[in-house]
Amino acid sequence: MDLDEFRAGLDGWLDEHQAELAPGDGSSLDEEMAHLSTVKRLAFDAGWMRWGWPESVGGLGGSTLLRGYLGEALTARGFVEPGIYSMTEVLVPTMIGYARPELAAQMVPRQLRGDETWCQGFSEPGTGSNLAALTCAASRVDDGWSVTGQKVWTSLAQLAQRCVLLARTGGPDSAHRGITALFVDMDSPGITIRPIETMHGREEFCEVFFDDVLVPAERMLGEEGQGWAVAMDLLPFERSTALWHRGAYLHRALEEVLQTAAPDMLRADEVGDAFQQLFALRARSRATQHRMAAGDTLGPETSVDKILLATTEQAVFDLALDGLSDQVLLGDEAGSERWRSKYLYSRAATIYGGSAEIQRNIVARRLLDLGSDR
Ligand SMILES: Cc1cc2nc3c(=O)[nH]c(=O)nc-3n(C[C@H](O)[C@H](O)[C@H](O)COP(=O)(O)OP(=O)(O)OC[C@H]3O[C@@H](n4cnc5c(N)ncnc54)[C@H](O)[C@@H]3O)c2cc1C
User: Fold this and answer.
1) 79, 109, 186, 233: which could form a disulfide with 58 (CB 3.0–4.6 Å)?
2) What integer best gives the mean pLDDT of the chain?
3) Using a 6 Å CB cutoff, which residues line ligand 1?
């Protein structure tokens, strides 16, 4: 199926199923997650969610642009919230690239169909930017690994069935060489999950404690000691292709600000700046989608996509704050809550997926060859 055919067919299907795909009034995380599962199940069963993924994991093949368009169309129409939808684009490519083929074939369809939620266990209390210093440890036992340690900021962990976990399997000084990636069942004995409330009032991420948690050997992603390579392959997806549909969401939000705000509340130069940034983001992001579709390996250049996303997201919601300040700052009704929540969440854009400073370091050192500690 080519992109034009996919677009026409999908747009028709989305029109036809609008009533089932549109979210209800509830805006809690549980309600959004339940709705996301419904949308993914409907889209998977109708075939749309399977295009752009390999047949070996339950997909229908075709260009990765097809799944990019699906995410864009679902977000642009407001059928899914882009943050929770993006976990598929972050984690599934890693499963395809590193899990045993039988494991990927078993698990990926569950994720695509919305039957399961997965989370990403990388950050720890002492380790975010400096990921190679992680200390959550896995030691060899008879038929696998025993994991003990702590993760933090693990998005959706309390709702997840599985976790892509980075653990130290080498000595304390083994840095990036001593890390192994594991695919962990979140209902394993020894896992304790404590949700953390964010400043926008949702328990969206968690502390996760591992106390002698047994992980079978066949749940290794890649080989022992290959966890750094897994992370370096995963992060470019988190910083680029997973953000393509977030551009559509920002476009929708910017249009809404302009339609809702009184014109004298907005400065023309700031509106112009926000549009300019949005179009730069979307152009860059589109080029990345095409590079992935052409079979290129995504790498450090995706930090540019992440920088553009973060600055655009904050510019759009800064404009919302200017144009709709009564609603964002003071209103009690649902619409005000929604704007306030989006504004506050936009502050996290310079942190999640690797902070803005770290992305600029990557651009300076890996792309521009400035500085020596590469
Ligand atoms: C909404 C949200 C969702 C998240 N979801 C997940 C998830 O699902 N799984 C997961 O594993 N993690 C998740 N994270 C964690 C995220 O990856 C980390 O917060 C991020 O990598 C920064 O790490 P840190 O918080 O430890 O900050 P630190 O690394 O302690 O950094 C603190 C500050 O110092 C700056 N800094 C640090 N080192 C340098 C340097 N070398 N040069 C210049 N400045 C530097 C940083 O830019 C930052 O401003 C999430 C975070 C957020 C906000």
Assistant:
1) 109
2) 95
3) 119-123, 128-129, 153-155, 205, 348, 351-352, 354-355, 357-358, 361
Q: Which residue has the tokens 């900021």?
A: 153
Q: What is the pLDDT of residue 88?
A: 97
Mutation to probe ligand 1, out of 123, 186, 204, 235 (largest number of atoms < 8 A from CB): 123
Q: Using 50, 70 and 90 to split pLDDT, how confident is the model at 47?
A: very high
* Residue 210 near residue 149, CB atoms below 8 Å: yes
Q: What is the mean pLDDT of residues 339-350?
A: 95
Separation of alpha carbons 25 and 281, rounded Å: 30
**Nearest atom in ligand 1 to 361's CA:** 42
Distance 305 CA to ligand 1 centre (A): 17
The DSSP secondary structure of 242-258, one letter per residue, reads GGHHHHHHHHHHHHHHH
What whole-number distance in Å separates Cα of residue 80 and Cα of residue 171?
43
Q: Verify whether residue 55 is a known catalytic residue.
A: no
In the reported structure, the alpha carbon of residue 170 is separated from the centroid of ligand 1 by a whole-number distance in angstroms of 23
Round to whole Å and give the CA distance between 350 and 365: 19
Which H, E and C letters describe 26-65, residue by residue? CCCHHHHHHHHHHHHHHHHHCCHHHECCCHHHCCCECCHH
Q: What's the whole-model pTM score? A: 0.96
Q: What is the DSSP string of 126-181?
A: TBSS-GGG---EEEEETTEEEEEEEEEEEETGGG-SEEEEEEE-S-TT-GGGGEEE
Measured in Å, residue 10 CA sits from the centre of ligand 1 at 37
Q: One of 81, 89, 124, 238 is an active-site residue; which one?
A: 238
Q: Quick count: other Cβ atoms within 10 Å of Cβ 190? A: 13
